[in-house]
Amino acid sequence: MNQERPLHRSSVRELRDAVASGERSAEEVTRAHLDRIRETDGDWNAFIHVADDAALAAAQAVDQRRSAGEPARALEGVPVAIKDQIVTKGIPTTAGSRMLKGFVPPYDATVVERLRAAGAIIIGKTNQDEFAMGSSNENSAHGPCANPWDGTRVPGGSSGGSAAAVAGGQVPLALGTDTGGSIRQPASLCGVVGLKPTYGRVSRRGAIAFASSLDQIGPLGRTVEDVALGLEVLAGADSRDSTCSTEPVQDYSAQIEEGIAGLRVGLPEEYFGEGIEPGVLDSVREGVRRLEAEGAVVQPVRLPHTEYSIATYYLLATAEASSNLARYDGIRYGHRAEGEDLGLEELYAQTRAEGFGPEVRRRIMLGTFALSSGYYDAFYDKAQRVRTLIRDDFVAAFEQVDVLATPTSPVVAFPRGSRVDDPLQMYLMDIFTLSASLAGLPGISVPCGFSDGLPVGLQLLAAPLQESMLLRAARAHERQFADAGAWPGEGGP
Amino acid sequence: MDIDDAGVRKIAALARLALSDEELALQREGLQRILAYVKRLDELDTRDVLPTSHVLDMHQPFRPDEVGPTLSTEEALANAPRSDGESFVVPQVIQGAS
Fold this sequence. Notes:
The complex is a heterodimer of chains A (493) and B (98). Helix content of chain A is 40%, strand content 13%. Chain A has 16 helices and 11 strands. Chain A has helices spanning 12-21, 26-44, 52-67, 110-117, 160-167, 184-190, 224-234, 252-255, 278-293, 309-324, 344-355, 358-371, 376-400, 423-428, 431-439, 467-480; strands at 47-50, 79-83, 121-126, 173-178, 193-196, 216-221, 264-268, 297-301, 403-407, 443-451, 454-462. Chain A has an 11-stranded mixed sheet. Helix content of chain B is 34%, strand content 0%. Chain B contains 3 helices and no strands. The mean pLDDT of chain B is 91.
């Protein structure tokens, strides 16, 4: 590997190969990234918890395996950061909430077990909007996170810490969760690659539940290959998650170079209309031209129910959240309101009022309303029926094309504090990511340009379980994109 | 749609959320605003559309009913805000008991 470049600027592939060949020790790699976090995270706040000691112990264990001559594994010695929404045995996990302050999980999520078994080093837990509810990382009990491209701007959300950590070279790979865009949107705003796999492709056991019919875990990295390497480890059946697909996992990283000659790419007209910043639109159109340069055939398509996706999503996701978050009662774990004279019902209500932040309380209220007697049919049931229409739009589109190309977000990273006062305006920014979540489709955001010096993301969507094709298209775009892999603060446009 | 203070209090009670008077007003305004927005779904005729609760065509998988490892009492209580070493401690719920 390149000896001139600092270790923390290496890819997953480079680090893994360097540890596997013995050129670098896992401890050396881990220390370089811990140093990078120490130097930068006072400014960025991308981490809620850095697991220094556990990470170094894990790295030393990897090095012992290497000296014992054991075969190198898929992510041998590669530092990985985990969104705080995902439980980690012995490492505090808060989901960005006061409600779970001090909570230390007694088990690892399946994805964390798989990362450890593949030789990855769990570096720490990344910042996020509380319980994954938000698009700017400003709803975090741990405080906001900065965008490494411009410290006064948000990294996006809810997986803002994971995207910022990867963008700034704190880790080469991070896990996020995506319920309505929470991997793709921050990847777009931070100029990294973020993949939301098909609903059910990756086990969600140990992902703290937000909206169970939508939640999915996925990887964020700096290159398409690194994300493919991550998905290979994460994906696959899990007998402890009954929603997890048993379809075979493919050799994604081996397939990404296969090219896209003749691939049919659809541009949904509804995703190129009003409300998109001109600089975003220009960059996305450039991205589409790169796909054409690689042999793709582009045609317009229609997704006529797109305008209903935000209303549908916010009814269904909040309804499911109001049910999932009922478990936080102040009894078995988490925050508990003080007061000897509180009755049980008062203890619940006071605990939850204190433990949840404003956006989470707002969504619990909306979800409880949508499920409540007298309103269920008009709101929750109605939204479930519109969800069918949105899904059918995609089924029809994928009869004509293989992949859809759209902007990931209508805007680039915006200044912190500029949009927090209007929840509905914040929700409207999720317009391009929500529909695919409702339909359970895989989606990836890849860097495709800059607007005013801030990264723009191109979103690619495919039919269920077509991750290999999606990654192949993303890689084809990356080959054509001269600024792929640009670092914040230098070499940018 | 219009939702009054009593309606907001009822939802908060169902959600087990204590509400200050100040937050009551905020929640009422927030709910009204988003409910006005989501009413656009009424533009669509969905009488002949089946609801989607889940996107996968999947069956419920079975597994053998075998005893596996579980958390010890100590592990289960480790994160409890109040416990006595054997149980979670809750406020007294049956009046008159000692």
